[in-house]
Write a structure and sequence with these properties.
With about 500 residues, the protein is of the alpha/beta class. The chain has 2 domains: about 120 residues, Chitobiase/beta-hexosaminidase domain 2-like (Chitobiase, domain 2), CATH 3.30.379.10; about 325 residues, Glycosidases (TIM Barrel). Helices cover about 30% and strands about 20% of the residues. The strands form 3 sheets. The chain has an 8-stranded parallel barrel with strand order 8-9-12-13-14-15-16-17, surrounded by 6 helices. It has a 7-stranded mixed β-sheet with strand order 1-7-5-6-4-2-3. Helix 3 packs parallel to helix 5. The longest helix has 17 residues. It is globular and about 75 Å long. The mean pLDDT is about 95. Bound molecules: ligand TNX. The site of ligand TNX has 10 residues, from loops.
């Protein structure tokens, strides 16, 4: 099984000379809770192959020429592990959980020619190399983050991004929903957040926001792809859009003017006013109700106008609201200054700050998601000639994004306390999803491989040659990407 699967599977045994050919007689067998994943696979394969690919609970009378989904009893495969066996007559995808079957589909997809991703009918043959894969993730959390606050991205654009990240077994999409420049999710008890606070964007553009119905639709779409949406409402800083929408949220009772620049750190909620906590109680309650996943991200980064003790008591107060509404707290690394409730998670990003407080929090049971800005911030430029992006954390070529090891990144933060890795994209310089994709690909797959593959299976040369095969796949999907000179692209 010669393959270019990204992230690299844990274990692959090729069956030389064997292959399975997808034909107009192929059936998909997907019983019980595998049925929606069978339907998803059929939906991926039908447009380009033109084959009918019927999906049903049994193989019927002709067991050959089938792609079968099997959920089995063995818990060793965990939440997302799977086996994928490709023989001449059959393909079998096996997992303990539906999420594992979904991840198996992503590997299967990558074993087919890139043209399978096209939206219109293509010529075959559609051969899948024979062999067996046994695979499971290193880390539970493999995330991408999209900043929809600095510039707004529509539901359709976010869906396209979800489809693109799911191909790399990314299972978390963190949406940075609010910032100084815009508030992007409807809160029905505070409507001006979006009708006023949603109208701006960096550079003075028109902004936008998701109604709760649209947000719920995004949640559902993501769930069907085994991606958990993590909503972030940034606080107490990065709140100018809220402060512009409601005068009472300001200490002086005066609404702030809208902000369309890209400075950070100047805004803060009024941490002494009772109304601030009534406001946050409403926001957190409404957001929790929209969120099936366990985490709410409360931001907590870069507030330069608040004395440390006030910041700490704010975070400690807000975390109780999150707990009250049944969720766990996630926040940028600054929140470790507070005493966090058990089960909280912090997101490391600031390469210029000491990591000792993060290590100390980890020692007390706070888990860590790693997003080191100099490796994983996909809004950094590839090199000095990249037009889009920023460079405060340096430039990040594909190899830089790939060659780092989570367990040795921070002293005192090892495998046991690392929940996973996440690749954020901040959108100060990005106006279209095309531009987001340009920065995400090919670096997002590098971060995905760090999060999924065993450390021992990772190797830059091997990764680079597998990654090269994904260029034509992105072209077929209509996904924009950067043709990095570090990769020998096939076309
Ligand atoms: C830092 S990362 C920020 C964001 C910016 C980003 C730009 C973090 C928690 N805060 O507000 O958008 O840098 O790279």
């Amino acid at each position: 099984m010669q393959n270019s699967i990204v992230p690299a599977p844990a274990w692959v045994t090729p069956a030389e000379g064997v292959s399975f050919a997808l034909t107009d007689a192929t059936h998909i067998v997907a019983p019980g809770s595998a049925a929606p994943i069978g339907a998803y696979l059929a939906g991926l394969l039908r447009p380009s192959t033109g084959f009918p690919l019927p999906v049903g609970p049994t193989a019927g009378i002709a067991p050959g020429d089938t792609i079968s989904f099997e959920l089995d009893e063995r818990p060793q495969l965990g939440e997302e592990g799977y086996e994928l066996e490709v023989a001449a007559e059959t393909v079998v995808l096996r997992a303990h959980r539906p999420a594992g079957l979904f991840q198996a589909v992503q590997s299967l997809r990558q074993l087919l020619p890139a043209a399978v991703e096209r939206a219109d009918k293509q010529d075959g043959p559609w051969e899948i190399p024979g062999g067996k894969i046994v695979d499971q993730p290193r880390f539970a959390w493999r995330g991408a983050m999209l900043d929809v606050a600095r510039h707004f991205f529509t539901v359709e654009e976010v869906k396209k991004y979800i489809d693109a990240i799911a191909l790399y077994k990314i299972n978390t999409l963190h949406l940075h929903l609010t910032d100084d420049q815009g508030w992007r999710v409807e809160i029905t008890s505070w409507p001006r957040l979006t009708t006023e606070g949603g109208r701006t964007a960096v550079g003075g553009g028109k902004g936008g926001y998701y109604t709760q119905a649209q947000y719920a639709d995004l949640v559902r779409f993501a769930q069907e792809r085994f991606v958990t949406l993590v909503p972030e409402v940034d606080m107490p800083g990065h709140t100018n859009a809220a402060l512009a929408s409601y005068p009472e949220l300001n200490c002086d009772g005066m609404a702030r003017p809208p902000y369309t620049g890209i400075e950070v750190g100047f805004s803060s909620l009024c941490v002494d006013k009772p109304v601030t906590y009534e406001f946050l109680d409403d926001v957190i309650r409404e957001l929790a109700a929209l969120t099936p996943g366990p985490y709410l991200h409360i931001g907590g980064d870069e507030v330069k106008t608040l004395p440390a003790p006030e910041y700490v008591s704010f975070i400690e107060r807000v975390q109780q609201l999150v707990v009250k509404h049944g969720k766990k707290v996630l926040g940028w690394q600054e929140i470790v200054a507070a005493t966090l409730v058990p089960g909280s998670v912090t997101q490391y990003w600031d390469i210029n700050a000491s990591s000792a407080p993060v290590a100390a929090a980890a020692k007390n049971g706070t888990k860590v998601v790693l997003s080191p800005a100099s490796k994983a911030y996909l809004d950094m430029k590839y090199d000095k000639n990249t037009v889009l992006g920023l460079q405060w954390a340096g430039t990040i070529e594909v190899r830089d994004a790939y060659e780092w090891e989570p367990a040795t990144l921070l002293d005192g933060v090892g495998d046991a306390v690392i929940l996973g890795v996440e690749a954020p994209i901040w959108s100060e310089t990005l106006q279209t999803i095309d531009e987001v994709e340009f920065l995400a690909f090919p670096r997002l797959p590098a971060i995905a491989e760090i999060g999924w593959s065993p450390a021992a299976a990772r190797n830059w040369d091997d990764f680079g040659s597998r990654l090269a095969a994904h260029g034509p796949r992105w072209s077929a999907m209509g996904v924009n990407y950067h043709r990095s000179e570090q990769i020998t692209w096939p076309e």
